[in-house]
Structure prediction request, 390 residues.
Amino acid sequence: MIERDLAPRILRAAASFPAVTLTGPRQSGKSTLCRSLFPEHPCANLESPDVREFAASDPRGFLSQFPRGAILDEVQRAPELASYLQPLIDEDPAPGRWILSGSQNFALLESVSQSLAGRSAVLHLLTLTRGEIARFPGPTRTLDELLFTGGYPRIYDRKIPASDWLSAYAATYIERDVRTISNVGDLTAFRRFVELCAGRTAQLLNYSQLAADSGVSQPTAKAWVSILEASFIIFLLPAWSGNLRKRLVKMPKLHFYDTGLVCHLLGIRTAQELRTHPLRGPVFETWVASEAAKHRLNAGERGGMHHYRDRAGVEADLLVDRSGGGVRVVEAKAGATIAKDMLAPALRVAGLLGGGEGERPLVVYGGDERQERSGCVVSGWARLLPEDVR
Prediction:
């Protein structure tokens, strides 16, 4: 078990709140992290049918097993438990007694917000950042190996070939989550829909076009996108809407949280195939955006990420609200050589936004160097720092 970047925030939350709720995609390491941080807590996994039946049929009796609290894993499988936890917490609000984890954003957060508002801290554990991956023993990975493998911990911990593990993950977890979140009648059509979304990673999300290509209605496409968001498979990067006298494109960009899953859904089966794949650039952009999302969530920063595009074709891959104020323009370029034209889009958008010297735009590229230039910062992919995007 490696150290996770989110661990200090979980411990701080557990020192202040009676309950801590940890959400994130399946297999992102939530259970392992909770058990390592709270080894004295008993653990109940509600994925087990007998445990779930006990919790659902006799919630008071179920919770009475844990007079000093417990880790309740996959708690969204018994959302009514939150209502029974509320009086127990009110009777004994000692911090850190209850640790709740789950992998369905809608069901879990709805029950927590209704019953445990003000009583539970809510944190999100996504898949591994590049820095966390580097803590596993083994050779340093190339950029294509990193993009192809993705960031699910079990691949690194068990040394499982990425293609094999992701194939099982796509079949088992995506489809199972679909059954529990929504009544999707045609799982084959849904799987095809997810593959089409992978082909649109780092692109503007046009619901009507996606629906037409998928052979479903536009309301169905929107509902299925919501399912993928709830399962932490994708996230939508909203368009920048600042007070600029520009005709801005309002559509969000679609990104996956994990590039390994994107590669699998695209039919890429080796890192060598990715090297020459026509979507390598969008996959790299998605990696940069997802790294930013992970670093920000690990630091307690929620939201504050946009993309920029106007009707004149001026665009930037990512805009980040800085914790100290201001907006940073981030551009992703998969090429391994720094070229002057790499810098121009980010500099142009930064000029439109009026960013100061302290918010120089950042260009993340597929090479190794890091250069602090007068107009912007150029960073190789392996030198991207958490503070670059916070």
In short: The CA atoms of residues 192 and 214 lie 7 Å apart. Residues 130-235+248-281 form one domain. The chain is about 45% helix and 15% strand.
